[in-house]
Amino acid sequence: MKKLRIFIDMDGVIADFDKAKKLLPENKQGRPDLHVDYLYLDYIQGAEEAVEYLNKHHEVFIASTPPWSRIQCWADKRAWLERWFPDLKRKLILTHRKDLLIGDVLIDDSRYRGQPDFKGHWFWFNKDWENKNWKACLEFIKKLENEEI
Ligand SMILES: [Mg+2]
């Protein structure tokens, strides 16, 4: 099995940002990143098992982009990770430039922070799509492990 370096995004991939967004009052939904409480996001269905598998077999980092203007969110993301994924201690990268990450796979639901220019495989995640959710993502990673891609 090939050991891969894998970067995993937080919001929309392991943290349920959408659910928190829907709970905001309507006048705050235009820029939910400026209002959502990052410390209390739920985790996304399937993420716990998927991250556990990936962390056991590969080198995993979390790569997330907190809103620049909300300094507290940078700490909240660190605290959130410790609560839900304590095995990922010291594996958090906060950046607005995901194209600068060097590794094999980037699992991310956004394309606005350099994801399309990531030099490895960018898995464009979407929890609601059968071919882009955690099940599909793990199938993709298993093909990479076996060097089928
Ligand atoms: Mg995201």
Structure description:
The protein is an alpha/beta fold and 149 residues long. The protein has one domain (5-145): HAD superfamily/HAD-like (Rossmann fold, 3-Layer(aba) Sandwich). The protein has 4 helices and 5 strands, in the order βααβαβββα. The protein has a 5-stranded parallel beta sheet, covered by helices on one side. The mean pLDDT is 96. Magnesium ion (MG) is lined by residues 9, 11-13, 108-110.
Outline the secondary-structure elements.
Elements: E1 5-8, H1 17-22, H2 47-57, E2 59-64, H3 71-84, E3 92-94, E4 105-108, E5 121-124, H4 134-145
Parallel strand pairs: 1-2, 1-4, 2-3, 4-5
Bound molecules: magnesium ion (MG).
**CATH architectural designation:** 3-Layer(aba) Sandwich
Tell me the structural class: alpha/beta
Largest beta sheet: strand ordering? 3-2-1-4-5
Counted by DSSP, the helix tally is 4
Helicity level: 25-40%
The total beta strand count reads: 5
In short:
This protein has four helices and five strands; from the N terminus they run E-H-H-E-H-E-E-E-H.
Which descriptors would you attach to this protein?
5 strands; alpha/beta; 5-stranded parallel β-sheet; binds magnesium ion; Rossmann fold; 149 residues
